[in-house]
Amino acid sequence: MANFFTDNPDLRHHLSHPLMRKIVALKERDYTDAEKFDYAPYNFKDAMDNYERVLEVVGDLCGDIIAQNAADVDAQGPRVEKGGVIYADGTQVNLDACRKAGLMGMAMPRRLGGLNFPITPYIMAADIVSRADTGFENLWGLQDCAETIYEFASEEQKQKYIPRVCAGETMSMDLTEPDAGSDLQSVMLKATEQPDGTWRLNGVKRFITNGDADIHLVLARSEDGTKDGRGLSMFIYDKRDGGVTVRRIENKMGIKGSPTCELVYKNAKAELCGSRRMGLIKYVMALMNGARLGIAAQSVGVSELAYREALAYAKDRKQFGKAIIEFPAVYEMLAVMKAKLDASRSLLYETSRYVDLYKVYEDIAKERPLTLEEKKECKYYSKLADACTPLAKGLGSEYCNQNAYDCIQIHGGSGFMKDYACERIYRDARITSIYEGTTQLQVVAAIRHVTTGTIQTLVESYREQLAQGGELKPELEAVKVRLEAMCEKAFAVIAQINDTKNQTYIDFMARRMVEMAGNIVMSYLLLLDAQRNDSFTASCVVYNKMAAALVAQHCDFIAATTPEEVALYQA
Question: Which of 151, 436, 484, 564 is catalytic?
Fold first, then answer.
């Protein structure tokens, strides 16, 4: 069977990005861990070899086991028995294989049983797993919840829970409720402190992914008489203590192997994680940013699978005496699918590198004071991560859905049948633009970075990188010229919208501004990729033309729509 890492050279391209040298040196504390752990890398090359070896293991498991089980898991699904979840047979096989391979707790420190991976190779593993089985990535990827325990819990709690995650126990984040979806300020699950310092939780949670996990992070109302986010705290619930039952598993359109549960808390024992009242204000925000990056990776994995399924079918299917890939209507669709895939993947790994840098500085700050230069860099990369995460999640998930749609279209009538994987891909893709914050909420998160200049500053840094990278390849000159014209047009229009000082008008145009900004950022990233690697040239040119057309379309719409005309769109 195929190895889902080695059969995709694009992954090695992103793993070898120049910024990785800085990330790895910081993560490994200049490789001093090698003095304490015999499996820790002693230099950059050794670290990169280690990441590649582990990713090859991930690729093998995905190609040989997880992908092979995906159809059966989708058909069988999980079930509820005696208030708990019984996974589909294939899901249990997948989990056991990941545990045996040591692929749980990948980003956790070695002292707590993890592999000490930076976020970037961990997100790459999530990309690969998502291509194999989108629903299974939800279970495997929730190991990322351990990051919240590592960042905010006490040392005693870290020592208690993180080694269990690294050994293979599963996690969930129990946030939403029947009356509190995206509006988490409305959470009402009640937390009551006990004389011994523990807490008891009572209430209902809904739409909880992997709701019968071993270890839960729970958002609950700890302050009597409050109704907003300031009355919420974060708690750790251990399944071993009991008190939580699974009332039902939702009957979903897709990701059927991932049990989405309704949970009933009845006097369930829990521990406070971090400080009271900071549950939503600080901890959930950090948790959600990690989850959104994970969904961006999931979206890219699904896009990859959709593109590969469409490409294989187009090469094999013959009509009018030749393979359908020879028809312009088909190969144009495939080229656009590949361009969207490459663009979303480039943004995904650019974002993960920014997350890596600010998080590693925050971690170092727990050990020693940061220098002024380190503080400056930490703040800079934190801001870029905050700007790019909603772009990666929002635009990546939309491209994922578009690629799944086009995959079925290329299959024609066969794509509508369950005989082909594209039908499952289409159902699985749909959730990516909904959960962990809809695309519309990603616009809300991203727009301030578009209107306050963060994105323009980022674009300027890309221009500098191009200027410092030597002579631009001749085939990319037209791309650069078109990209500079896009920037001039888009940023001028954004400034005009800002100048109106009309908040309703600004909010109404937010989606268009965010899409233009995202398209420009991804165009620059593909240009930088193509300058480093010829295999990205086609996608760079195709995406650049597509993005230029979209920017022109949005600019024309904005120019033709006055603030007063926004009222026409209101119900």
Answer: 436
Q: Which residues contact 216 (CB under 8 A, 6 or more apart)?
A: 171, 172, 173, 174, 236, 237, 238, 239, 244
Annotated catalytic residue 81: no
CB-based contact 125:55 (threshold 8 Å) = yes
Query: Which residues lie closer than 8 Å to 112 by C-beta, 6 or more apart?
Result: 105, 150, 158, 159, 162, 163, 166
Radius of gyration, CA atoms only, the chain: 24
CA distance 559 to 554: 9
Would you state the structure tokens that stand for residue 355, as one six-digit string? 């997350």
For residue 351, report the phi and psi dihedrals to the nearest 5 degrees: -65, -45
pLDDT in tens, 111-168: 999 999 999 999 999 999 999 999 999 999 999 999 999 999 999 999 999 999 999 9
End-to-end CA distance of the chain: 54
In what helix (H) or strand (E) does residue 15 lie, and over which residues does it extend? helix 9-15
Residues 504 and 443: beta-carbon distance below 8 Å:
no
Tell me the sheet residues that pair with 180: 177
CA 430: distance to chain centroid?
Answer: 15
Q: With 80 as the cut, is the pLDDT of residue 571 above it?
A: no
pLDDT tens digit sequence for 341-381: 999 999 999 999 999 999 999 999 999 999 999 999 999 99
Encoding tokens for residue 394? 């929002």
Which residue matches tokens 């022109």?
552
d(CA 82, CA 95): 22
How far apart CA 177 and CA 526 sit, in angstroms, is 40
> How far apart (Å, rounded) are the C-alpha atoms in residues 562 and 557?
10
Contact 399, 345 (CB under 8 A): no
Q: In the numeric block, which tokens belong to residue 391?
A: 């772009």
Separation CA 160–CA 20 (nearest Å): 31
Q: Would you say 124 and 54 are in contact if contact means Cβ atoms under 8 Å apart?
A: no
C-alpha closest to that of 215 among 298, 271, 297, 293 = 271
Pairwise CA distance, residues 303 & 130, whole Å: 9
Which amino acid, 214?
A: D
Closest by Cα among 432, 105, 141, 209 to 300: 432
CB atoms within 10 A of CB 67: 21
DSSP H or E run through 260: strand 260-273
For residue 281 the two structure tokens come to 């204000």
Contact 345/386 with Cβ under 8 angstroms? no
Locate 194 and state its tokens. 């006990």
d(CA 393, CA 295): 6
The angle subtended at Cα 338 by Cα 336 and Cα 340, nearest 5°, is 70
CA distance 207 to 435: 10
Task: Write down the H helix ranges in 252-364.
Answer: 285-316, 328-364
**Whether 453 contacts 337, CB under 8 Å:** no
